Amino acid sequence: MHPENPQPRSISTVADSIRSGALIAYPTDSCFALGCQLGNRDGLDRIRKIRNLDDRHHFTLVCENFAQLGQFVHVDNDVFRAIKAATPGSYTFILPATKEVPRQLLHPKKKTVGVRIPDHVVTQALLTELGEPLLSSTLLLPDEEEPLTQGWEIKERLDHQVDAVVDSGDCGTSPTTVIDFSGGEAEIVRRGAGDTSRFE
């Protein structure tokens, strides 16, 4: 996939496969991620299996824009301003979920979910074509320090577990910075690619 001018036909093919239940590996502005359609239970189970995740893991809804993000999480005015100033970018925000979010994605106790708006041309083109968020998780394999960064390597390692690898060249090895706003104040949960100074 061309990194600056992704081919519309290729984007459309990937979007169609996601709608048909595919689990993909795709690039973002922080690192590669695993993604599938929001209601895809099989895709969700496969992500849990690949990453060896428990039910307390916060999944992320990767959104095209702020309007879409607002359908899936509750955002008050102060939090709205803070998130708006930091998006699009390499941040994941944990917020109380709305009823639009499938229950199996929610943190069992807090009823929260992660959301982000990436600053990546290929991901944005895919989200525009899809018309809905991608259910996502960082492509970080169990017992490994850093995410995989090369499309060919991901295909080699996960060939039987993912249906497609979207490759637009290298992306980074730093996952997103995670900010938990579910308690009203910014709490830095993970320091990653996004600058944390604005939240401290």
From TrEMBL:
A Pfam family hit: Sua5_yciO_yrdC
Database matches in InterPro entries: DHBP_synth_RibB-like_a/b_dom (IPR017945), Sua5-like_dom (IPR006070), SUA5_domain (IPR052532)
Coiled coil regions in record: none
Residue stretches making up the YrdC-like domain: 8-194
Name recorded for this polypeptide: L-threonylcarbamoyladenylate synthase
Source organism of the structure: Streptomyces rectiviolaceus
Lineage: Bacteria, Bacillati, Actinomycetota, Actinomycetes, Kitasatosporales
